[in-house]
Amino acid sequence: EVQLLESGGGLVHPGGSLRLSCAASGFTFRNYAMSWVRQAPGKGLEWVSTISGISGSTYYADSVKGRFTISRDNSKKMLYLQMNSLRADDTAGYYCANLASTSGDYYETDYWGQGTLVTVSS
Amino acid sequence: DIQMTQSPSSLSASVGDRVTITCRASQGIRNDLGWYQQKPGKAPKRLIYAASSLQSGVPSRFSGSGSGTEFTLTISSLQPEDFATYYCLQHNSFPRTFGQGTKLEIK
Prior knowledge:
The complex is a heterodimer of chains A (about 120) and B (about 110).
Chain A: E1 3-7, E2 10-12, E3 18-25, E4 34-39, E5 45-51, E6 58-60, E7 68-73, E8 78-83, E9 92-97, E10 116-120
Parallel strand pairs in A: 2-10
Antiparallel strand pairs in A: 1-3, 3-8, 4-5, 4-9, 5-6, 7-8, 9-10
Chain B: E1 4-7, E2 10-13, E3 19-25, E4 33-38, E5 45-49, E6 53-54, E7 62-67, E8 70-75, E9 85-90, E10 97-98, E11 102-106
Parallel strand pairs in B: 2-11
Antiparallel strand pairs in B: 1-3, 3-8, 4-5, 4-9, 5-6, 7-8, 9-10, 9-11
């Protein structure tokens, strides 16, 4: 059974840091580019970042560039999102997912985690 | 950056109705588009990939069409479980962009 399990969310003060993790199982993790997608309370979906499967090429939304770092450990089947200099508008549920390859090719499979909530507040 | 303009933002319909949701891309994206359904408190679920291919396990009342800049998601006969929010996503280039969402409500 395919599973993506996020963890690491919580309450953090503005300016603080948090590291999200996403544990993958049930599929060949290294074969897929992986992404983080977030959703502020009551709002739509926002793409945050993507990392390629093998080379580790990374891509970021302008809203998080320079503050967030995506990484992965294929040997552990883990995806990470290091979030620094957090702001109130980073408050959201964060999902890991295999949206598409970094070259734009679709994946026939569609894997999402259940999400982890990040709240940035004083 | 590619902007995805999704319409309508909300839609009231009845069980059995046929509904269509549209996404327009600010520039051509070939068929690099997916459609997602999201229910409250749940992760999104992809219904359509490559603009018109039905995701495995998704009922055939869902269909997608389009290429280039204009795309549609059609539900041929609404069922009670289809009332949800729908999003398009372009994965042609970075940054990836979602449409603003369409909330489908029961009339």
